[in-house]
Design a protein that fits this description.
Layout (H helix, E strand, L loop, with lengths): L10 H11 L8 H8 L21 E11 L4 E9 L2 H13 L7 E14 L17
Antiparallel strand pairs: 1-2, 1-3
């Protein structure tokens, strides 16, 4: 089993706690200190496989159209989530204009919802060893 955990790190407390154990804390980065804190969990069967600092580049938002479902009396997601709110609005206008909205949904009662998305990626691996130009 794998678990994705998002941790807030209080750098001052982390450094202070590590200074009690180590003399040379200045050479270690905060991420190094964070990783070393997971060492004690190994005895419980929990190991840290990967860790990545979350930067502004890894935080984005996505937007989703929700239409009112008449029979269930609630908003339901419709279509795919989008990177831009304006794209959601344009897709809804297109779907209404082309008659793509089923009768059980009310296109006049809609919400565009947003949520944060954290992008976590692993290292790139070669798919094949062909190299060179592809024909």
């Amino acid at each position: 089993m794998k678990v994705l955990a998002i941790c807030n790190i209080n750098e001052e407390i982390l450094k202070k706690s590590r200074m009690e154990d180590l003399e040379e804390v200045e050479d270690e980065t905060v991420l190094d200190l964070f990783r070393s804190e997971f060492a004690w969990m190994h005895d419980s069967g929990v190991s840290l496989e990967q860790s990545h600092e979350i930067t502004d580049d890894s935080l984005t938002k996505e937007y989703q159209i929700f239409l009112w479902r008449k029979d269930k009396e609630c908003y339901v997601p419709v279509g795919n989530s989008m990177h831009f709110e304006s794209l959601c609005r344009n897709r809804l206008k297109e779907a209404v204009a082309k008659g793509w909205i089923p009768e059980y949904l009310d296109p006049n009662r809609f919400q565009i919802m947003e949520r944060p998305v954290i992008r976590a990626v692993g290292p790139w691996k070669a798919v094949d060893n062909l190299g060179g130009a592809h024909s």
